[in-house]
């Protein structure tokens, strides 16, 4: 259930980097997959996923992505894939575990994760999940204005060429989330 772009109002609600984001029970994942072709990086695919229900099982957006991608690295093991995620929430401990296992078994895949907010960052199991991702080579970062703008320009409709207007406390919340993440990953 991929979509190419996310509606502007949905993006502004779900990606707003509030310290305490109540009522946001869905994760949206904007992704870019690039592949190495000789000595250059070539765009391969981009899109948006969100949590889904499959056969009465709730799948988080990260696992939806792995299901979508699962055959590609094995079909082309000599081709390196560079994956970038822009997520409304950082992965929960269960998703982090599965993504880390995927990375461990696919040396030809690299992953960078930019999160708008950290998911229950005070809980040790979610902290350990983020550390596990890092140990398996994932680069985990907090979204800054540059990443919010990138999402706005590449994954959001309709913005009609209008630039993203930073919301109140965007910069303070970026700094707060980045400090928390830095402390977790040390």
TrEMBL record:
Any one cellular component term from GO for this entry? nucleus
Pfam families (alphabetical):
NAD2
Q: Which cofactor does it need?
A: Zn(2+)
The Gene Ontology biological process terms listed for this entry are: cytidine to uridine editing; defense response to virus; DNA cytosine deamination; innate immune response; negative regulation of single stranded viral RNA replication via double stranded DNA intermediate
Q: Enzyme class, one word?
A: hydrolase
Q: Which PROSITE patterns match?
A: CYT_DCMP_DEAMINASES_1 (PS00903), CYT_DCMP_DEAMINASES_2 (PS51747)
Q: Which residues form the CMP/dCMP-type deaminase domain?
A: 23-133
**EC number(s) from the headed UniProt entry:** 3.5.4.38
Print the keywords alphabetically.
Antiviral defense, Hydrolase, Immunity, Innate immunity, Metal-binding, Zinc
The family database entries (InterPro entries) matched by this protein are listed as: APOBEC/CMP_deaminase_Zn-bd, APOBEC_Cyt_Deaminase, CMP_dCMP_dom, Cytidine_deaminase-like
Q: Which GO terms describe its molecular function?
A: cytidine deaminase activity; RNA binding; zinc ion binding
Reactions catalysed according to its record? a 2'-deoxycytidine in single-stranded DNA + H2O + H(+) = a 2'-deoxyuridine in single-stranded DNA + NH4(+)
Q: Which family does it belong to?
A: Belongs to the cytidine and deoxycytidylate deaminase family.
Protein name as it appears in the record: single-stranded DNA cytosine deaminase
- What is the source species? Sciurus carolinensis
């Amino acid at each position: 259930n991929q979509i190419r772009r996310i509606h502007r109002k949905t993006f502004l609600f779900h990606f707003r980097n509030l310290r305490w984001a109540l009522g946001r029970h869905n994760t949206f994942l904007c992704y870019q997959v690039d592949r190495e072709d000789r000595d250059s990086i070539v765009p391969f695919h981009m899109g948006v996923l969100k949590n889904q229900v499959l056969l009465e099982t709730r799948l988080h957006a990260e696992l939806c992505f792995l299901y979508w991608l699962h055959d590609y690295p094995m079909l082309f093991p000599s081709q390196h894939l560079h994956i970038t995620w822009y997520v409304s929430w950082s992965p929960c401990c269960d998703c982090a575990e599965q993504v880390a296992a995927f990375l461990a078994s696919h040396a030809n895949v690299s992953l960078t994760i930019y999160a708008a907010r950290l998911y229950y960052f005070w809980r040790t199991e979610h902290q350990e999940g983020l550390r596990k991702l890092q140990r398996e080579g994932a680069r985990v970062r907090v979204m800054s204005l540059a990443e919010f703008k990138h999402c706005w320009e590449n994954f959001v409709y309709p913005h009609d060429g209008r630039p993203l207007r930073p919301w109140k406390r965007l910069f303070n919340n970026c700094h707060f989330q980045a400090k928390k993440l830095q402390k977790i990953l040390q």
